[in-house]
Amino acid sequence: MAKHERYRNRIEILQGTLDLLILETLRWGPQHGYGITQTIRLNSGEVLDVETGSLYPALHRLEKQRWISSEWKISENNQRVKTYRLTARGRKRLASERSRWDRLLQAMAGILEPGAKENEA
């Protein structure tokens, strides 16, 4: 995909959705900021590209709400990196957000494919 097409087709991620993506990514274990963005990008088929200017304010917000915690570590490349980890409080929030997201997806499916549920019955 050409660079200008990527920017033209960029998907704006709402704050709550970005929070959910970050919490979900950290569900599998601690990661540093770059690892979080790469996981989101790769797992979304390179459709979602979280910019640094969006990621770090979200990480700070999630940390302030105590849904994640952070600590400084030395990476394999011998560089100092801040890693983020999901807290117990964050796991509860993630479960709540996933439930809300599932309801939203079902509502959207009902609008986009109104006959689908009737066909399943």
Question: How would you describe this structure in keywords?
Answer:
121 residues; alpha+beta; Arc Repressor Mutant, subunit A; 3-stranded antiparallel β-sheet; 6 helices; 3 strands; 60% helix
Summarize the structure.
The protein is of the alpha+beta class and 121 residues long. 60% of the residues lie in helices and 13% in strands. The chain has six helices and three strands.
Helices and strands in order:
Layout: H1 3-8, H2 15-26, E1 31-32, H3 33-43, H4 52-64, E2 68-74, E3 80-86, H5 88-112, H6 116-120
Antiparallel strand pairs: 1-3, 2-3
**Average of per-residue pLDDT values:** 86
What is the name of the CATH architecture? Orthogonal Bundle
The radius of gyration over CA amounts to 17 Å
User: How many structural domains can be distinguished in the coordinates?
Assistant: 1
Question: Which percent bin holds the helix content?
Answer: 55-70%
Q: CATH topology, anyone?
A: Arc Repressor Mutant, subunit A
Q: Strands of the largest sheet, in order across it?
A: 1-3-2
Number of strands: 3
CATH-level-4 superfamily name: Winged helix-like DNA-binding domain superfamily/Winged helix DNA-binding domain
Q: By helix and strand content, what is the structural category?
A: alpha+beta
What proportion of the residues form beta strands (DSSP E)? 5-15%
Low-confidence stretches: 7-12
- Classified by CATH, the class is Mainly Alpha
| Main sheet makeup | 3 strands, antiparallel
Large-scale geometry: elongated
